[in-house]
Amino acid sequence: MTWESQGPAAPQGPSWGGPQQQPQSDWQAPPPGYAPPPPGYQPPPPGYQPPPPGYQPPPPGYQPPPPGYAPPPPGYQQQMPPEPMWAPPPAYPLAPDAYPVNVSYDRAAQLDRLWGIPWVGQLVRWILLIPHILILVLVAIVAGLMLLVTWIPVLILGRFPGWGYRWVGGMMGWAVRVQAYGLLLTPTYPPFSLSGEGHPVSVRFDEGVRISRFWGIPFVGMMVRAIVLIPHFIVLWILAIVVYLLYLVVWVPVLLLGRQADFVYTLVGGFTRYWFRVTAYLLLMVDRYPPFSLGEDDPRL
User: What residue spans of 147-260 are helical by DSSP H?
Assistant: First the structure.
């Protein structure tokens, strides 16, 4: 067998005899500024949508609203609860043995010096108080009629009735505020009110204190109390003379200093406080025997 010399083998092309083509790839160059994902990166789940522009993640501890929650309409303002009708307790603690009845004055109050003109200032003030005096007479008549039956709750329940404090105690407090304005102890004209809320001359009753039912015996209870109060009546009679003489000079500190003197608050205000406590004990409003004292239980003064 003879071999024929052959040249180099021709390259093998496609089966159809055309020239060979290079395979194509789907790879594309990354856009400018592309950064590879950090280690541990996981692609978002199917259906994920990126947050809208300006989205801020919720703060730590945020809890989603409960199902069915509806946001308030535009312009909604939260309604504040109404203020309580009762007066808030004092910001200072009372003494442990504080008497259940007290009258206090604002000793730092400033008064116009015109009220200190001798006799004229007090005379003008008492003229302005004539409407109060007329109304107080009517209120005193109503309170006096109530005193005919206030012994019944004391006898049955062992306490003075709440409506008795409102009328009898309110009438007494009203009279104290009228007196304080007429005697230059306060610059504020008294309100036509049994409560006197907001006035610098404040009157405190500890309502609901327990009272021995013995004092509720008709006529006997108040009669016995009047007898045991005889020493207080004697002291009050002597103090009344001193206070009456002091009335003649209460205008002097107002004219010179523009305020009332401390000794006037101590004597005149103390006498009023003393009389107030003795009267409250006589009318079965408290059970504790009043002290022989002009002072008060307010630690600020």
Answer: 151-157, 162-164, 170-182, 220-228, 230-246, 251-257
Q: Which domain holds residue 150?
A: 101-282
* Ranges assigned E (strand) in the chain: 101-104, 202-205
Are 99 and 291 in contact by the 8 Å Cβ rule? The answer is yes
d(CA 229, CA 290): 9
- Of 240, 151, 148, 260, nearest to 200 by C-alpha is 260
Q: How far is the C-alpha of 233 from the C-alpha of 223, rounded, in Å?
A: 14
Number of domain units in the chain:
1
Is 294 among the domain residues?
no
Q: Cα separation of 218 and 149, whole Å?
A: 9
pTM of the complete model: 0.65
CB 299 within 8 A of CB 274: no
pLDDT, tens only, 60-113: 878 888 887 877 787 777 766 555 444 444 444 455 567 888 898 988 889 999
